[in-house]
Amino acid sequence: MANRSKGTIGILTGGGDCPGLNAVIRAVVRRAEQLGYKVLGVKDGWKGMLKADAEPLTADSTSEILTRGGTILGTSRTNPLKKEEDKKTLLANLGSMGIDFLIAVGGEDTLGVARQLAKENVKVVGVPKTIDNDVEGTDQTFGFDTAVMIVTEAIDRLQTTAESHHRVMVVEVMGRHAGWISIVSGLAGGAHCILIPEESKTLDEICQVIKGRHARGHRYSIVVASEGFQLKGQDALVTKDKELDAFGHVLLGGIGERLAKLIEKQTGFETRSTVLGHTQRGGSPTAFDRVLGTRYGVKAVDLIEEGKLGHMVCLRGNQITSIPLVEAMTKLKLVDEEWIRLAEIFKG
Ligand code: F6P
Question: How many angstroms separate the alpha carbon of residue 76 from the centre of ligand 1?
């Protein structure tokens, strides 16, 4: 380790948590210490920056967190740029907390704030996280692989009970705008119908798939639906309530139950729904997410060392590299035609 500190790196985790965040934190601290930086862990995402709430992190204090889900730093959906006075507080606190460089680990909202701050000359680096895998600019976010594993296991389990009772099972999974969890775990679990936000369908189209299976002698069906799926002709998303969070998102939920009722009514087949909800974000990360988080964490510190600020670390093929935040966050990464075609091939 170097004798003199090269400066202090603040790290925060914002937005919905996901497995692998602790792997990033551990890697950032380990690499930073090796290169001669100190690390300050900012509590609860951007909220900690507004309250100047942080604690020093060391390689020893973070040595046993690799396998743990969630984030030891806590998280929040605080938007520090919503009010001008909050932005001023944040910028002032960066100075008073002695943070020279900031690593923001988050999804579209957290990284959107990081991008804005980079424009204000804050020395910030982004790390893409989210189970939704919808961050443009990286092939994969960490957390996604774990969520897919959890959903696939749930589909496997639902399959045996659906088969015994000759039922249709609708599995509602997370995915507000992007259907990555649905499509990948639906394919992995052999679902018979996959419904994603990118592609609305009519109730008739869905029921035809199910009726077709039953007509061929199969007595159960599995439907996987993203929470953001919309039936064709319905212009409103199914939501838990109408309130918006600090980034303007409404809390989705309920499409599974709605579909189950409609499918049962139209097909006459007994139908149940299961909402996997936050189980998809909980628990220990897969080996893939632990290693991806570790590689991202090391790269984030390397970017600071190289002076490549205002960048987001990313995965391209098998390589960890980086992309300017302004280029990364222009739109959401949605499920593309190739995946939709694949799901079509295995429909029914
Ligand atoms: O972080 C993304 C996400 O998991 C979405 O898929 C989901 O819509 C949302 O978070 C749920 O948010 P909350 O944790 O606030 O209930």
Answer: 11
